[in-house]
Amino acid sequence: MRFNFNDGTWLNEPANWRADEAALTLTTDEKTDFWRETHYGFTRDSGHFLTFPTTESFTAQIRVQGEFRTLYDQAGLMVRIDERRWVKSGVEFTDGEPFLSTVVTDGKSDWSVAQPFRELEDFHIRVTIKNGAMRIQASRDGSVWPLLRLAPFPAATRYEVGPTACTPERSGLRVQFSEFSVGPAITTGLHDLS
């Protein structure tokens, strides 16, 4: 099911955004982020997140377009139970180039990065939650979906899911989200790239 972006609820609404049923465009506010404790010792819950409610199992996917140039510029999909249990996955700029990034948080955050492909100014991200497991896939074209991450994630009867963007080191990142859909959890094998 596709959503009208105007039907979502903001956690940390950005000062500048516009939306319709086809696309959401936002510009990040200054020093926004989601992180809990690990390595850095701080907790931040100030990133932009447009939330839509889901049930206990689902697959969500979205197209992300932006020019990621500054350390920790990031945008993608977030799934959230509460401020202590969430995941964000998408692009993040680090070490001088964009990577596909996932932060899984269950009390404390972990962080992983990968580069199955380097063209990250226009890409798709997909998250599936089912039976206490989270499967994250990324795609250049929305057709071929290599696995980015498989991890445990707390089972819940309800989640919030939607686009997220943060700029911990600056403001002014402009990101466009489109092709956002949420449906039943996919059940294809891990090595099925469809």
UniProtKB/TrEMBL annotation:
<dbReference type="Pfam" id="PF07081">
    <property type="entry name" value="DUF1349"/>
</dbReference>
<dbReference type="InterPro" id="IPR009784">
    <property type="entry name" value="DUF1349"/>
</dbReference>
<dbReference type="InterPro" id="IPR015987">
    <property type="entry name" value="UCP022704"/>
</dbReference>
<dbReference type="InterPro" id="IPR013320">
    <property type="entry name" value="ConA-like_dom_sf"/>
</dbReference>
<protein>
    <submittedName>
        <fullName>Regulation of enolase 1</fullName>
    </submittedName>
</protein>
